[in-house]
Amino acid sequence: AAGLSSATINRRLSAVNSALAELAKADHGHGRLAVKPVPHEARRDTRGPGISKIARVVEETAERAIEGDVTAARDLAIVLLAAQRGLRRAEIASLSLDQLRLDDRTLFVRRKGKREMVSIEIADTTAEALGQWLTHRNTIAAQDTAAVFVATGNKWRGKPIGTQAMYEIVRKAGASVGAKWHPHGLRHSAITEALRLCNGSLVAAQTFAGHSSSTTTGRYIDDKARLERQAVDAMGSVFTLPTRS
User: Fold this and answer.
1) d(Cα 203, Cα 109) in Å, to the nearest integer?
2) Nearest 5 degrees, angle CA 108-CA 212-CA 196?
3) 142 vs 91, which has greater pLDDT?
4) What confidence tier does 134 reach under pLDDT thresholds 50, 70, 90?
5) Which of 41, 186, 188, 229 is the most buried (most CB within 10 A)?
């Protein structure tokens, strides 16, 4: 009735039960409530902006980079890592020079919740954008940092940029086409498009996303309506009705 999310309700219920359990240890009260947690319901809209809008930003940013805009060269590489390779902003922000193997079109990243680095492949265009940015980076970055992405402005020039800066870069990129973007939205779009281009292979999309479970990957799919229509049309050919003569 109060319009609270399932997560908020469950957190508050857990807090109440913890307090009641402590009171019960001192022989006060009846202990934990016999109430089950509320089933989880996702409420935050995490859908991506769609490939067409991303393509427009990529094209415009690439044109500025070709003209010598250093910041555009950096931002293009960041957007492609998120929207073309589906990396999380923390994975992008933590990249260091020794994690790049651009000649082999690979990166070494530490996936969410993992301890060891893993090798992932990247597209030629992403590698090209990274190479162009590194050409600029090597002229502005301080020698005491190995971070791939650094600030280009006067105040923090050459200093590593963190996850909040990544968020702002993506937000501004979206604003240039009149859209509200966030890095995880670009990841959603990347995973959705990877699934489409791989003919609906959830295994391929899961590997691309770096998820431990295909269930997690399924929650990232934005265009479920299209997939439903595709499945319905496919099943439509299974049964046929006789025609009247």
Assistant:
1) 20
2) 85
3) 91
4) very high
5) 186
> Token pair for residue 176?
């240039």
> 115 — alpha (psi -120 to 50), left (phi > 0) or beta?
alpha
Distance in angstroms (rounded) separating the CA atoms of residues 75 and 168: 10
Decide if 223 contacts 196 (C-beta within 8 A). yes
In angstroms, rounded to a whole number, what is the distance separating the alpha carbons of residues 112 and 104? 23
Q: Are 143 and 49 in contact (CB under 8 A)?
A: no
Confidence bin at 245 (pLDDT 50/70/90): low
Q: Does pTM top 0.85 for this prediction? A: no
pLDDT per position as a tens digit, 151-166: 998 888 889 999 999 9
Structure tokens at 173: 């990129």
Q: What is the mean pLDDT of residues 83-102?
A: 93
Phi then psi for residue 188, to 5 deg, are: -60, -50
State in Å, rounded, how far the first CA of the chain is from the last one.
Answer: 59
47 vs 54: CA distance, rounded Å:
13
What sign does the CA torsion over 157, 99, 95, 46 have?
Answer: positive
Provide the pLDDT for residue 21: 84
Q: Is the pLDDT of residue 43 over 50?
A: no
Query: String of b and e for 25-62 (b: at least 16 CB within 10 Å)?
Result: eeeeeeeeeeeeeeeeeeeeeeebbbbebbeebbeebb
- DSSP codes joined into one string, 182-229: -HHHHHHHHHHHHHHHTTT-HHHHHHHHT-S-HHHHHTT-S-HHHHHH
